[in-house]
């Protein structure tokens, strides 16, 4: 149960960190009317990749294909997918450390 909750919290925190970083840097450089340096784009892109990777791990814990994260590109469908990833419980209770363990049944 702790691992399931940790994956939900990790997904939510990566989303919040990415949104917070982009918002704060955008406001900072917009107020001074200057273009941000290239490292700002690099950090933002890195946080976006981290969010996608965490989303793929969360999809795999639900026995979904990791390709479903492409739904983030569709505005309303992406929000619905994000809510499902945050709310839905995994189907397989033997989920541990990102891999499915075969049950002995």
Describe this structure in words.
The protein is mainly alpha-helical and 105 residues long. The chain has a two-stranded antiparallel sheet. It has one domain (2-100). A hairpin with a 2-residue loop joins β1 (95-96) and β2. α1 runs antiparallel to α2 (38-61). The two termini are 21 Å apart. It contains 3 helices and 2 strands; from the N terminus they run αααββ. The chain is elongated, with a radius of gyration of 17 Å.
Task: Give structural attributes.
105 residues; mainly alpha; two-stranded antiparallel ribbon; 64% helix; 4% strand; elongated
Q: What is the number of domains?
A: 1
The secondary structure category is mainly alpha
The first-to-last residue Cα distance is 21 Å
Total helix count? 3
Query: Kindly state the mean pLDDT as a whole number?
Result: 81
State the total count of DSSP E strands.
Answer: 2
> Could you give a short account of the major beta sheet?
2 strands, antiparallel
Topology, element by element:
Elements lengths: L1 H30 L6 H24 L13 H13 L7 E2 L2 E2 L5
Antiparallel strand pairs: 1-2
Helix pairs in contact: 1-2
């Amino acid at each position: 149960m702790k691992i399931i909750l940790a994956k939900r919290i990790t997904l939510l925190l990566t989303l919040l960190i990415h949104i917070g970083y982009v918002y704060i840097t955008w406001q900072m450089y917009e107020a001074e009317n200057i273009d941000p340096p290239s490292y700002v784009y690099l950090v933002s892109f890195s946080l976006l990749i981290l969010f996608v990777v965490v989303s793929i791990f969360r999809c795999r814990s639900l026995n979904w294909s990791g390709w479903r994260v492409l739904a983030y590109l569709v505005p309303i469908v992406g929000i619905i997918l994000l809510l499902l990833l945050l709310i839905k419980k995994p189907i397989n209770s033997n989920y541990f450390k990102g891999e499915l363990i075969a049950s002995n049944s």
